[in-house]
Amino acid sequence: MSSTAVSTPGGLRLPRWAAPAGVAVLFVVAYLVFRGTATLPHDKEAPQFLAVTDLREWIDDHRNDNPIFLYFLNYIRLFVGWLYDLFQVTLYALGWPGITGILGALAWLAGGWRIALFAVAGVSAFGYLGLWQSSVDTLALVAVSVLLSLAIGIPLGVWAGLSRRARRAITPVLDVMQIMPTFAYLAPLALFFHIGAPAGAIATMIYSIPPAIRITALAVSEVSPTAVEASTSLGATRAQTLFKVYLPLARSTMALAVNQTIMMALSMVVIANLISAPGLGGDIIRGLSRAQVGIMLPAGVAIVVIAVLLDRMTMAVSRRGPHSKLSRADLVGAGVLAVGGLALIPVLPRTWPDGLTVNFVAEVNDAVHWAETTWYPVTTFVKDLTTFALLNPLESLLTSAPWWLMALAVLTVAWWVSGLRPALTALGCLLAIALLGVWEHTMQTLTTVAVAVLVTLVIGLLLGVAAARSPRYSAVQRPILDAAQTMPAFVYLLPALALFETTRFTAIFASVIYAVPPVVRLVEDGIKGVPATVVEAAASAGSTPGQLLWKVQLPMARRAILLAANQGIVMTLAMVVVGGLVGAGALGYDVVVGFSQRTDFGMGFVAGIATVLLGVMLDRITQGADRRPSPRKRKFT
Description:
Blueprint: H1 18-34, H2 47-61, H3 67-111, H4 113-128, H5 132-162, H6 164-179, H7 183-193, H8 197-221, H9 225-233, H10 238-249, H11 251-271, H12 281-290, H13 293-318, H14 328-343, H15 361-374, H16 376-400, H17 403-418, H18 420-436, H19 439-469, H20 471-486, H21 493-500, H22 504-528, H23 532-540, H24 545-556, H25 558-578, H26 586-596, H27 601-627, H28 631-636
Helix pairs in contact: 2-27, 3-4, 3-5, 3-8, 3-13, 3-14, 4-13, 5-6, 5-8, 5-11, 6-8, 7-8, 7-27, 8-11, 9-10, 11-13, 12-13, 13-15, 16-19, 17-18, 17-27, 18-27, 19-20, 19-22, 19-25, 20-22, 21-22, 22-25, 23-24, 25-27, 26-27
């Protein structure tokens, strides 16, 4: 048997990590040399802030004589206000007996008697907590917002599902809208639509419309081409094919679009209180401003009840088949509830009786004070450790580095991780932030986001891997994740505020518990999606469970993990900005101050724009990483 010598290329071959390490060393040296120069400190009286504030004053003075406002924007505001008044008056006319009966009947038709029972108990809870009027106002605001979102979103979604050109045009807009934190919607809408219920409804509608469009487009695009071809071959027109083939077959997925639109609307109606939208948000904002969990908790419970009830109803509808029919017993039960509720309207008072309410504000505040006192050593240790070991050093690094060095670092990292186009987008966003004059506060916000994302990914990976490898643990964890993803974002501030008072760490803690559930789900689904044949082949080759995880499952689940990182960043950024209400400072605080103090409106408006740019920058880096091949694939291509 002959052997052939294989020649190897001569010369020294550097390891793969040498180039990144060398670039990192260059950045460290540059930072040490230029530290403290070109840092762009924050100036509250910057000309661009004052210019936006002056623009608001001009708009307020000319709101009723400028043609754009007089013949366009004011009519939109009046129409939305009329629609809200219609829903509000109708709900108040029904009173608690009518609302209980009708909502219970709709719940029975949607998901059976158990959901109907929960609906009756939930409506009663609104009154029992002493929040009847606020809850009705919230229901009216959600109803108007969701109705408008679906009226606009579903036709756009159908169009995008049927036309690739339309989908390519709409997708970048939806990407930006979903990256934008909730606060970022408020400033421009307050500028153009003033404050009150109409502005709150429009802000909620805009925030909740992306899932209506995206999921509807997905549902329509996934309709079987065979069914469409059969309809066309039988001579059906485009309209007939749409209404008799596309929409019926996409009905269950479109019900999920309604579900997600409602959940997004519930997250926004609380924050819309900052522009004087009515409802439960007022109680939560008041509790936050006074740092009293006792005021926030009843309103938080009421919002969770609304969210869980509407979630269960719409999810029950989405699980039905296209040809499923209601039983006679369900129709009779729902009819009895509806008729009974309407019949009791003239008999019982319209508003919930004051004698049937409970007030436990003092008891909750006492319990929170006890928890703070009892757990003070533990919570203080965790808070101080995170602050001094991570937050302060990272913030010092980012705020003392020259702006041009940070821009070069972002360009380098984004190019290496995601490619040239995302890198240029990220660089453009960062340079725009520098021009807006909020560089220092942006770096402080980026510090908080980075720490929160790091903690979120560590916890999400651990819990996701555990769930993927243990079906029993996954069965226990999944209902908890379902409940956690149903809750509006503001609810997560309750435990954070109760444990850590108003500090930067409070926002980080709330961000982590808000962002962990989707990260856990994506990691679990990614690892479970690894082909069983690959896992069996690795196990038969003698791989240990640890080797199987690190060398097979995690690398093959790379896309899902990168998507989890992307979602974690977007959700964490949104929550960190909300954390401006509980001591997070930086851009979130600027936005809050801009709404509360008229003279600082320009600063708040610009801070909202900077938050969007920061979100786009971080999103583009991680989304681009998801589309690139892994380092191992790059090596062999």
